Structures are given as structure tokens and as C-alpha cells.
């Protein structure tokens, strides 16, 4: 054997290239001999059938002298023969089939079982005729030596029992069953008898079952073969439903208790599953005294001695816990919850590094069993939420939910993705607590998990953003930024995979996003992505899903500018695109627009661009357009769209006159006839178009509502901008006025000392006079309005010769200016009169009091003036 040599780089030079060609030529020598003919002339002669034979004669001939494959073909065609000629088929073909089945192979037997069942389901003959002709053949083949064939005929018989009358069942099935259920019969016969008795329990009254069937049931429950005991144990559920609660308690329950202690694990497993399924038929005493001890025993033995029941126990644990919920003590409730938690993490402790030695001893079967257990725990998770109460979810089950969503095995995460919607519904107001797990599953590395989650994605997202009465708006708003990157990541992963059906499904479900997130978020994160998929993806179903979702986004977009931009891109990049494939997708998009938007919207934006495609150079585009023209015409309303109707008729005339492709011309002629038969709706409502017009009117109303909402938002933003500008202007004005007042105070302070002769004592005296005069002026006003911001600059200087008079005039101006600026409900007469009885005087002093006040100021200033003159003379 030659060693394998790996070349880092192949040499394609001329010398080496000839060497490769020689090697390829050597390979052509090794060829398999090919048979020139599949059948010899003798075989062809034997398989040839006269073409003039009828279907019945041909079937009889092939069953009599044909090969097995021909006979199998006749048996498979039996339902067709029964539909065409039932009498002749029953008289001539069915007896031949009965003869052939005695020596037929497995394939023909399986085909016959399916054909007999099809004849029953299609009701080609009456049930009486069917039982007379077909039932005996079915019963004869029940005990076939091949187990697969026997099971196929048994399934057919069980379906036939549903339709047979009681008397026929009693004579043809029940009476022979007594002998076939005996211990002396074969194992296969006894197993078939168990399944038939389970089916018969629903066909007869309780007293007949008690007298004729229950003795056989007890006998088979104590059969020597464990397969028979297990099979009969599983049929006890159907028998209990047929005999009622009382007989179940006295007859079935003792048998189940005994079978639960059987030496065979498969029998114990069957007994446990039957007990769980019959919980509703047991009263509280039976549950607490009989069922609960058995269940506890199963749970204790599952980890120690009987691991075979572990998978079944994990599968039925949710139903078991909720069925026994009323009889649990708090301790038992906690015990079963801990048992579920232990099963949910079974097999993960070793992966975390706790038992490295045991990891080496684990077999592959054990690992598969542990994966099945955790998968069943994921399946039962919604039932366990009900068991612990959704209010206690975060405390009791959130850690298990986290582990199952992050399980290393795909089947476990897949099951959690399927049950995620049920969990979200149960949590209601607490649904925001599992938001991180939703993001995790959306970003899962397995597309199977994503595909399972996408099935109920719209409902889940709606619950996430709007779920629960008590969920605050803050939690909803915080959940959105995490969801949007997860959704975009999920779509990109589906797009890069080969599973286009998952991608298509995802795009279809993303049409729910306008109800979940804002219009701007959809526009910037999803809408352009949909357009890119339409332009670049190569899978037609994916492109159509993206086109429809894009139209939904456009339908709910709340900004007219963005809508116009998208419409323009659709027309330019699709309708006027260079690739004919894009132009075909434009027509698909127009179909979705006609479905989602009003007629007026389509006529306004897309009617003329669609008609332009009548001149398309590619015949397939023109052909697709012709198929679409009846829908296009249905969007018109007369007389509003009369000019568009003329354009449509003109384009059709051009197609009829100028079309050269014969296939397109044929479709055009057919379309013209259909358009002629169409009735165009008018602007007013008509009875025959009432529902469609009403729906279109509702769409148009919603479109106008979006425009009005956009206008209101613009006005609101403008008003907010104006208020902001007004506030800025007021602030600037106050700032300038405060600067003016400071300049006024400084000018007064500087002008008063200019009266003195320049000595320091004189300056200080003048300053004290100025401070007193300012204090008088401020005391004349209310403290709230005592500012002097509105004083003009022309009053900021005082002449030396008239100091007191200027101060008096300045104070009078302050009083009048401030009072004129105040918008109070006090009449002007209250400021002119000298009365003091009105309420305005409480805030502002009267004119007389102001004059008295300013006269006292004048006297003081005069006195100060005389003292100043004496000082100056000295």
C-alpha cells in the first residue's frame, strides 16, 4: 500500500499537466460492463399485455399469470377499480387478490392492507358490502408470520372496527377473539387480541364489557409472557374509559397496582404511564392512598435501581405534578420540584467538571438517555410553571429555564424554543424576565432552534413589548434595543445558510414588526434590508416573502418622505431595473401593494409604472403583466380614474397590434376577453361591490389617518421649536434688561458724586443720599415686582442743579412703568382714585400715599441740599 502524499501546492506546468492527463486516461480503462437491454426478449414477451383488454380483464390477467411486481401494481390500483366499476371488481378481481395473498410477499401484503383501508375511507361500497367482501381477508392475514405485515393488517382492522355495526363486530370479531386470547395460542395472536380488546371497549356498553371482555383482560394481564402483560397494561386506559369510574376503581386499579410491581421493567413502565393517563378518573382518596405512594416509589427507584423508567418519568412529570397538586403537602410539593430540577440538569454536572472519572465511564447510551430526560423536562416546563405558580417563577424556576435555554444539546434548546410561547403566555406581566433568553435563542448557532422559535415569533414579540397589565413601560422600552440586533442577526444567519425555507418563514414573520417597534427603527434597520434581499437573493419564495414584508413596512410607515423614497426605489431599481428578474419581482410587489393598500394609492404611484412594462423587451415580463392586468383594472374607479382607463386601453391595443411573441399574444387575447367581462367600480357604493368597496374605504381611511398623524407630529415639533425660540428670546431679553438695570445703577452712582466738589466726605454723603432715595423708590412697589429692569437709558444721568427733582421724577417713572407692564385684572380707575378700599392697594400703594412719600423725600433732599451748600461755602 502506497503512502498518501499531500502536496501543499499543485504544479500546473506543461510537463506535469500531461502527467495528470495520462492518469485520467488510465482511469477510463476501469469501466463497468453496461447491459444494453434491461430485459431479454423472453421476459419482454412474458410482460407484454394486450392493449385491447379492459381494466378489469387486465387486472385478472396480471393476477393470474403475471409477475409479483405486476400483481402488486394491480393491488395498489384496487381503489381506482372500485371507483370505476365496483360490481365487476368485487366479482372478478377481489377473489383473485384473495388467492394471491396466501403466497404473496411482504410488499404485496403491505400494499393490500393500505388499499383495503383506502377503499373503506373512500366509501366506494356500503359498509355491509365491505364487511362481507373485505373483512374476512383482513382477519385471515392478521396472524402473518412477519410482524410488520401483521401490524399493517391490524391497523386496517382497528380502523374498520370504527365503522362496523355492533352485531357484525360481535359475530365476526368478538366471538373468535375468546379462543385467540387463550394461553395455548401463539404470542402474536395474543398480542393482537390485546389491541383488539382495547378498541372494542368503546363499541359496547359497560355490562357487555364486564361480562365478555374483562375476564379476557384479567387473563392477559397475568400472561406468562411479559410482552403480553405490557401490551394489555397499555390497553387498560381504553378499557377504563369504556367501563366507567366505578368499575375502573374496583377492577382496573388493582390490576395496575399489581402490574406496577411486576418483575419486568417494561411492564412497570406501562403501568406507570397508564396510571398517569388515568389520574382524572381517580378520586382524591385513590390518588393519595394508592397512586401517590406508587409514584413516589417510581421516583426513588428511577435513580437507583430502575433507570429504564427515567425517560418516561421525565416525560409525564408535568402531567403527574398537576394531577396530584391538590393532595400534595408543602413538603411533597417542594420534593417533586427539586426532583424536576435534578432531572433538568441530569448529565450536565460531569461536563462542568464535577465527576471527571465518571465521565470516562459513561456510555453513549447513558448520554442519549440524559439528553432525552432534559428534552422531556423542557417539554414539561410550561406545566411546571403552573405547578409552582407564575408569580414564583423567578424565584423557583428561572435558573432551570436559563440552563435549558443554554443547554449544550440542540434537541433540548429546540424543545425550549417550541415551548417558549407557552411560557411567555403563562408569565403574563413577568414576561420581561425571560427577554434575555429570547435573545439567546434568536442568536442560537443551530437554525433548527431558530426555525422552532419563529413559528410563534409575532405573538412572543407582542407579549414582550405589550404583555401584562403590571409590566411597566420602562421595561418594555429597555427590551427593544436588545431585540432589534438579535432579530437582524437571526435574519442574516438564515440568509447565509442553505435552509431557504427557514429564511422565508423568518421574513414572513417579520411582517409583525410594525406592531412591535417604531416606524423609524423599521425604516433604518429592516426596510432597506428587505429591498436588498429582493435585489440580490436567488430564491424566488424568499424574494416574494421579502417583497410582501417590505409592502407591510411601507403600509405602516408614518413619514411621507420615507414612503416616497421607498416607492421611488421600487420603481427605479425594480420596475426600471436592468435585470428582467427584478422587473418580474416588481410585478410581484405590485400584487402585494394591491392587496395591502387602497385602490387610490396604487393608481397614484404604481399604475403608470406597471403599464410601462408593456414595452418590456423580455417576453416573460410582458406575459406576467398580461396575467396581472385584470387586477390592475380592478383598482380603477370611474369617473375619477377615467384617464388611467384610457391609458390601459391604449396599452392593450398596442399589445394586440405590435406583439410578435405568439405565447404572449395568446395570453393577451385571453386577457382582453376577461377585461371586457369585468365591471369597473364607480365612486359611489354598489351592492355587488359593497364588501370590496367597504374594505378599500377602510384602507384609504387608514392611509389618510397616517398622513394626518404625520402632520400633527410636524405641527407639534414646530410648536415645540417655537416655544424653545420664545424661551430663548425671553431669556436673552431678561439678560439684556438686567444688564441695562446694572448700567442704570452704576450711572446713578457715578452721576451723584459729580455734584460735589470732589472731597471724600462729600462723596460719601452723596452716596448715602442716593441709597436712601433708591430705598424709597423700591418701597413704593410690591416686593415681587420691585425690579427696575424696564427703565430706559435716557433716565440714567441726573443734572447737578436738579438732584431732588430728578430723583422724584425717576421714582414716579418706576411706579408708572412697572404698573403698566403688569397684566392684572385690576381696572385703571383703581390707580387713578385715592380710595383705599380695593384689593389692588394691598399690593400697590395709592397715588396719594405715593405723593406723600415722595414729598417727604423731597423735603429731606432739600434739607440735605442746604447742608451741602453750607459745607461748600465753608
Secondary structure tally, helices: 46
How are the strands of the largest sheet arranged?
1-2
Low-confidence runs? 1-15, 27-32, 468-478, 741-808, 818-874
Number of strands: 2
The chain-level structural class is mainly alpha
* Rounded mean pLDDT score: 78
* Inertia-based shape: flat
Radius of gyration: 47 Å
Helical fraction? over 70%
Largest sheet: 2 strands, parallel
Strand-residue proportion? under 5%
Instruction: Determine the N-to-C terminus distance.
Output: 139 Å
Main location: cytoplasm
Biased composition (Low complexity): 837-856
Subunit structure: Serine/threonine-protein phosphatase 4 (PP4) occurs in different assemblies of the catalytic and one or more regulatory subunits. Component of the PP4 complex PPP4C-PPP4R4.
HEAT repeats: 213-250, 252-290
Write a brief structural summary:
Serine/threonine-protein phosphatase 4 (PP4) occurs in different assemblies of the catalytic and one or more regulatory subunits. Component of the PP4 complex PPP4C-PPP4R4. This protein has 874 residues and is mostly helical.
Amino acid at each position: 500500500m502506497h503512502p498518501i502524499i499531500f502536496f501543499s501546492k499543485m504544479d500546473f506546468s506543461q510537463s506535469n499537466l500531461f502527467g495528470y492527463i495520462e492518469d485520467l486516461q488510465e482511469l477510463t480503462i476501469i469501466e463497468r460492463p453496461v447491459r444494453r437491454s434491461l430485459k431479454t426478449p423472453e421476459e419482454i414477451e412474458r410482460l407484454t399485455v394486450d392493449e385491447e383488454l379492459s381494466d378489469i380483464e387486465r387486472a385478472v390477467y396480471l393476477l393470474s399469470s403475471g409477475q409479483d411486481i405486476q400483481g402488486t401494481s394491480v393491488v395498489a390500483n384496487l381503489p381506482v377499480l372500485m371507483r370505476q366499476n365496483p360490481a365487476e371488481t368485487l366479482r372478478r378481481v377481489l377473489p383473485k387478490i384473495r388467492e394471491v395473498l396466501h403466497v404473496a410477499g411482504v410488499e404485496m401484503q403491505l400494499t393490500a392492507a393500505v388499499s383495503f383501508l383506502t377503499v373503506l375511507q373512500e366509501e366506494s361500497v356500503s359498509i355491509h358490502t365491505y364487511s362481507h367482501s373485505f373483512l374476512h381477508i383482513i382477519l385471515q392475514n392478521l396472524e402473518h408470520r412477519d410482524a410488520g405485515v401483521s401490524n399493517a393488517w391490524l391497523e386496517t382492522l382497528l380502523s374498520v372496527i370504527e365503522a362496523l355495526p355492533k352485531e357484525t363486530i360481535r359475530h365476526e370479531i368478538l366471538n373468535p377473539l375468546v379462543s385467540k386470547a387463550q394461553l395455548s395460542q401463539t404470542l402474536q395472536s395474543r398480542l393482537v387480541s390485546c389491541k383488539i380488546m382495547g378498541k372494542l371497549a368503546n363499541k359496547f356498553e359497560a355490562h357487555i364489557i364486564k361480562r365478555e371482555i374483562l375476564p379476557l383482560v384479567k387473563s392477559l394481564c397475568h400472561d406468562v409472557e411479559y410482552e403480553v402483560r405490557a401490551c394489555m397494561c397499555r390497553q387498560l386506559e381504553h378499557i377504563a374509559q369504556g367501563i366507567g369510574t366505578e368499575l375502573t376503581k374496583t377492577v382496573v386499579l388493582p390490576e395496575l397496582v399489581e402490574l406496577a410491581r411486576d418483575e419486568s421493567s417494561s411492564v412497570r413502565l406501562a403501568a406507570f404511564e397508564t396510571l398517569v393517563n388515568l389520574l382524572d378518573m381517580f378520586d382524591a382518596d385513590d390518588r393519595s392512598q394508592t397512586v401517590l405512594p406508587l409514584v413516589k416509589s417510581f421516583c426513588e427507584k428511577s435513580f437507583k435501581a430502575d433507570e429504564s423508567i427515567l425517560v418516561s418519568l421525565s416525560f409525564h412529570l408535568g402531567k403527574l405534578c398537576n394531577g396530584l397538586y391538590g393532595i400534595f403537602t408543602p413538603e411533597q410539593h417542594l420534593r417533586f420540584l427539586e426532583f424536576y430540577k435534578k432531572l433538568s440538569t441530569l448529565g450536565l454536572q460531569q461536563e462542568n467538571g464535577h465527576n471527571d472519572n465518571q465521565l470516562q465511564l459513561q456510555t453513549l447510551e447513558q448520554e442519549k438517555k440524559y439528553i432525552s430526560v432534559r428534552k422531556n423536562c423542557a417539554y414539561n416546563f410550561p406545566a411546571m410553571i403552573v405547578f409552582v405558580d407564575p408569580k414564583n417563577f423567578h424565584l423557583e424556576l428561572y435558573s432551570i429555564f436559563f440552563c435549558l435555554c443554554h443547554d449544550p444539546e440542540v434537541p433540548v434548546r429546540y424543545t425550549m424554543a417550541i415551548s417558549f410561547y407557552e411560557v411567555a403566555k403563562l408569565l403574563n406581566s413577568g414576561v420581561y424576565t425571560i427577554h434575555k433568553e429570547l435573545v439567546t435563542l434568536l442568536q442560537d448557532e443551530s437554525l433548527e432552534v431558530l426555525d422552532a422559535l419563529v413559528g410563534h415569533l409575532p405573538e412572543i414579540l407582542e407579549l414582550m413589548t405589550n404583555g401584562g397589565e403590571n409590566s411597566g413601560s420602562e421595561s418594555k422600552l429597555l427590551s427593544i434595543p436588545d431585540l432589534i440586533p438579535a432579530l437582524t442577526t437571526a435574519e442574516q444567519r438564515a440568509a447565509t445558510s442553505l435552509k431557504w425555507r427557514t429564511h422565508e418563514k423568518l421574513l414572513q414573520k417579520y411582517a409583525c414588526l410594525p406592531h412591535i417597534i417604531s416606524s423609524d427603527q423599521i425604516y433604518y434597520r429592516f426596510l432597506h434590508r428587505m429591498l436588498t434581499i429582493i435585489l440580490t437573493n436567488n430564491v424566488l419564495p424568499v424574494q416574494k416573502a421579502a417583497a410582501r414584508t417590505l409592502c407591510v413596512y411601507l403600509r405602516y410607515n408614518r413619514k411621507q418622505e420615507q414612503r416616497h423614497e421607498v416607492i421611488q426605489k421600487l420603481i427605479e431599481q425594480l420596475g426600471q431595473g436592468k435585470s428582467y428578474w427584478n422587473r418580474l419581482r416588481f410585478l410581484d410587489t405590485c400584487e402585494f401593494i394591491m392587496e395591502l393598500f387602497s385602490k387610490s394609492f396604487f393608481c397614484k404611484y404604481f399604475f403608470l409604472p406597471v403599464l410601462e412594462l408593456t414595452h418590456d423587451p423580455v417576453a416573460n415580463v410582458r406575459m406576467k403583466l398580461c396575467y396581472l392586468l385584470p387586477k390592475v383594472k380592478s383598482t380603477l374607479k370611474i369617473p375619477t380614474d377615467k384617464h388611467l382607463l384610457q391609458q390601459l386601453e391604449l396599452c392593450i391595443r398596442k399589445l394586440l397590434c405590435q406583439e410578435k411573441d405568439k405565447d404572449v399574444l395568446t395570453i393577451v387575447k385571453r386577457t382582453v376577453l376577461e377585461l371586457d367581462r369585468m365591471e369597473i367600480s364607480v365612486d359611489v357604493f354598489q351592492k355587488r361591490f359593497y364588501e370590496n368597496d367597504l374594505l378599500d374605504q377602510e384602507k384609504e381611511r387608514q392611509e389618510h389617518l397616517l398622513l394626518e398623524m404625520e402632520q400633527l407630529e410636524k405641527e407639534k415639533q414646530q410648536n415645540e421649536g417655537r416655544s424653545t425660540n420664545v424661551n430663548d428670546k425671553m431669556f436673552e431679553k431678561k439678560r439684556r434688561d438686567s444688564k441695562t438695570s446694572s448700567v442704570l445703577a452704576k450711572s446713578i452712582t457715578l452721576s451723584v458724586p459729580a455734584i460735589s466738589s470732589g472731597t471724600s466726605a462729600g462723596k460719601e454723603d452723596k452716596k448715602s443720599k442716593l441709597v436712601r432715595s433708591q430705598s424709597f423708590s423700591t418701597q413704593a412697589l410690591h416686593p415681587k415686582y420691585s425690579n427696575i429692569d424696564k427703565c430706559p437709558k435716557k433716565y440714567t444721568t441726573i443734572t447737578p442743579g436738579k438732584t431732588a427733582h430728578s430723583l422724584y421724577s425717576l421714582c414716579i417713572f418706576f411706579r408708572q412703568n412697572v404698573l403698566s407692564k403688569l397684566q392684572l385684572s385690576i381696572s385703571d380707575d383703581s390707580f387713578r382714585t385715592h380710595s383705599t378700599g380695593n384689593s389692588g392697594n394691598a399690593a400697590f400703594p395709592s397715588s396719594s400715599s405715593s405723593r406723600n412719600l415722595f414729598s417727604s423725600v423731597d423735603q429731606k433732599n432739600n434739607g440735605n441740599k442746604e447742608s451741602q451748600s453750607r459745607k461748600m461755602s465753608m
